[in-house]
Inverse folding.
């Protein structure tokens, strides 16, 4: 049976592009590893943040669009994006959020404590201490590497058909059901990061897409051969996956599971260093070759953004 290690990346809608960079790079300390465009809407950035090289399991991506309508978090979406921080880092992050005037609360489930807050567009985020996962080597804006976000701890899914979503997680994606409490069911992949998924046990009501909501969640395929096997499997069980799509930094296939959530399966290779040197990741606007003839027009239509240090209150 095919099994995914866990999350490859999560993609969300947000508003202001510079505020997005200031928060996820300046406040959370993630590295902007790729600045490109939405291949289906080239007037919109596609920004990728992660650890020092954007390893699978660390990548959060955004479509920022000024004056975008505000979404409503709910069924058919990833409702919470969870980041893993090193053991002993919760106090550091609590003080850091306080220093930026970011409201937060502490919650718990399955014996773990989570620090919950929202980004400027309303995306719901949590931090959780985890022993597992390779430490990040990226340090920025006052975040030492010993407290830096490692990547994803996992995610909470909000399904409008919970039993069907859980069936897909367990029987199709190969995650293991490991616990149930307080209306949530927990699943776990075999990877050491981005591998813990919580799902509502009872059906949720639909959310609305827009700024502050997740567009899709992508699961890992270790290579191109396994990726083709995933597509064959999905077709066999009736999910009508898309053809394989070249996203430059990974290959992708998409399908919508019965609980309304858009799932993607993405390849670990080739990664983000295929068109920029490691030390220059995220510093240039990278376009696929079919958009290069329109570079001047595309650049004129995009807002100027920069990765910069930001100050607290």
């Amino acid at each position: 049976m095919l099994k995914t290690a866990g999350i490859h990346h999560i993609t969300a809608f947000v508003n202001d592009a510079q505020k997005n960079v200031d928060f996820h790079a300046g406040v959370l300390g993630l590295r902007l590893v790729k600045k490109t465009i939405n291949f289906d809407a080239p007037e919109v950035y596609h920004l990728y943040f992660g650890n020092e090289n954007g390893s699978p399991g660390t990548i959060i991506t955004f479509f920022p669009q000024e004056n975008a309508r505000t979404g409503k978090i709910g069924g058919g979406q990833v409702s919470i994006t969870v980041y893993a921080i090193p053991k002993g880092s919760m106090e550091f992050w609590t003080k850091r959020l306080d220093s930026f005037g970011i409201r937060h609360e502490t919650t718990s489930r399955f014996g773990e404590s989570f620090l919950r807050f929202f980004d400027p567009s309303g995306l719901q985020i949590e931090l959780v201490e985890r022993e597992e996962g390779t430490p990040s080597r990226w340090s920025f804006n006052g975040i030492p590497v010993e407290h830096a976000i490692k990547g994803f701890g996992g995610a909470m899914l909000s399904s409008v058909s919970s039993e069907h979503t859980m069936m897909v997680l367990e029987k199709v994606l190969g995650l293991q059901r490991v616990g149930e409490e307080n209306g949530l069911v927990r699943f776990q992949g075999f990877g050491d990061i981005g591998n813990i998924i919580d799902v509502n046990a009872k059906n949720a009501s639909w959310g609305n897409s827009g700024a502050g909501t997740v567009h899709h969640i992508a699961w890992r395929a270790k290579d191109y051969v396994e990726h083709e096997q995933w597509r064959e499997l999905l077709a066999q069980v009736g999910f009508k996956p898309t053809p394989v799509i070249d996203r430059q930094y990974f290959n992708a296939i998409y399908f919508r599971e019965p609980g309304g959530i858009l799932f993607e399966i993405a390849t670990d290779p080739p990664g983000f260093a295929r068109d920029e040197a490691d030390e220059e990741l995220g510093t240039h606007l990278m376009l696929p070759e079919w958009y290069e003839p329109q570079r001047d027009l595309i650049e004129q239509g995009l807002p100027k953004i920069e990765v910069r240090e930001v100050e607290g209150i």
Observations:
- The longest strand covers residues 41-50.
- The chain is about 15% helix and 35% strand.
- The chain has one domain: 7-301.
- The CA atoms of residues 131 and 236 lie 38 Å apart.
